[in-house]
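During the second half of the funding period, the structural biology subgroup turned its attention to how the target accommodates small molecules. The most pressing case was fructose -6-phosphate, which had performed well in the primary screen but for which no bound structure existed. We therefore specified the complex as follows and requested a full 3D prediction, including the ligand pose.
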Amino acid sequence: EKGGYPHFMLKEIFEQPACLTNCMRGRINVEHDHVTLSALIDHRSKLLNAKRIIIVACGTSWHAGLIGKQMIETFCRIPVEVEYASEFRYRNPVVGESDVVIAISQSGETADTLAAVELAKSRGAFIYGICNAIGSSIPRATDTGTYIHVGPEIGVASTKAFTGQVTVLTMFALALADAKGTVSHDEYVKTVKELAQIPAMIKDLLKVNDQIADMARTFTYARNFLYLGRGFSYPVALEGALKLKEISYIHAEGYPAAEMKHGPIALIDSDMPVVAIATHNGMYEKVRSNIQEIKARQGRVIAIVTKGDTTISKIADAVIELPDTMDCLEPLVATIPLQLLAYHIAVCKGKDVDQPRNLAKSVTVE
Ligand code: F6R
């Protein structure tokens, strides 16, 4: 049932091209120039008139929510807040009839996320679910939603569900922006076309698996890791750090790269590997100077760069190349090598990657 892979996690990482194709099937048309989500057709006025969107989720799903926020704010110009469901539900939050609440959950059974949904519903908010498990509790409690359709996720560390969630959030932002008129037709078509190419890009990118397996061996000594990214890559840094700590039990933290100088730089020494997402986008020069600061303090840098990068490749200790894509779609590719890095480090350390200690696949208790 692991399809020839040693672990479900690796199988699920490699399934992502097929899963994301399934996720977009029937939603992005064959010409790749239009997205249709049935939830948006059925509840058009509710969604078009949302004054604010609040995303509630936990863990990896919360990271997908942070990317969704940037996506929705960029394309739809609606303010979005992203809340840990566990904090939202106990805070007497300001939420009401003009709000749309998006609940993101792979299992659809996470107790805190379900309770956040019930609370928001009782205050009159419109609830939109982004879930994987069909017919689970959260989709049943929502007004509408979009399944990610990535198939059952068995590995406790979430991989394909994360990229599926980000794909749905991207389609949601694009479809809503098109309906609202907050995106130009050219930008809309260009982004939809590029999104449709992402599964093929990931398929090609997965060839880095052997390179990362080799690289992982040289990083098993570390007790701490820092992950840095900016803009759309900041939540990817958080997600990369979470994957590593869950399955390898190495302490890891994700940070927006510019925050490094406000504290974490004090930690940098030769025992502290730093994974820096330094792709060719508006923030490239800034992340490059962060990398120089780390090298000046003998830190070891694993740089995630855009294919063909020559500058950062010279200063980093290890380099992983990503295909060139649009800024807003970068999380879908940048996540892949970070999943593989966490996986291989954990395997090298002899850890049980599919069943990490103390963790359950769905957290149905508080
Ligand atoms: C991380 C992980 C957890 C879940 C979190 C929410 O790899 O699996 O952080 O993302 O427990 O679970 P769902 O999405 O099922 O609500």
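Two results from this model are relevant to the next phase. Residues 160-180 form the longest helix (21 residues). The radius of gyration is 20 Å.
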